[in-house]
């Protein structure tokens, strides 16, 4: 299943919003606003009513504890692993793009992503409240 750039950006913004990114939720809303407005317009059949359904979102004040734990776990990773996560999740780069940037084979990128996710999973499981 191929992911288009909008889907990748959506996934990144969702992760960033879950991670407490102050503007990520607003950016996500902006990315999908027109599609959501069209859907609302089909349902309510009045432009002013559809506009009322589309308020500007507000970002949550403080991220949940599990997000804070994930951020702390990421901060403990070596720099090369943090860079890999940044390229893939924050910048939304494809495996092939990352392979070009890091001058390594795409299969190596995939295995390193798998490895760093497993490392994070183990760290988070050890630190469950």
Structural account:
The chain is an all-alpha fold and 129 residues long. The protein has two domains: 1-62, no CATH class; 64-129, Arc Repressor Mutant, subunit A (Orthogonal Bundle), CATH 1.10.10.10. The chain has seven helices and no strands. It has helices spanning 5-18, 24-44, 47-52, 65-75, 79-90, 95-102, 106-126. The termini are far apart. The model has no long low-confidence stretch (mean pLDDT 82).
SSE series: HHHHHHH
CATH class of the largest domain, named Mainly Alpha
The coarse overall form would be flat
Determine the number of helices (DSSP H or I, runs of at least 4 residues): 7
CATH structural architecture of the largest domain: Orthogonal Bundle
Number of separate domains: 2
Roughly what fraction of the amino acids lie in strands? under 5%
Query: CATH H level of the largest domain: which superfamily?
Result: Winged helix-like DNA-binding domain superfamily/Winged helix DNA-binding domain
Helix and strand composition category? mainly alpha
- Low-pLDDT runs of 5+ residues are none
Through-space gap between termini: 37 Å
Number of strands: 0
Q: Radius of gyration from the CA trace? A: 18 Å
Summarize the structure.
With 129 residues, the protein is an all-alpha fold.
Question: What characteristics describe this protein?
Answer:
mainly alpha, 129 residues, single chain
Helix and strand layout, with pairings?
Layout: H1 5-18, H2 24-44, H3 47-52, H4 65-75, H5 79-90, H6 95-102, H7 106-126
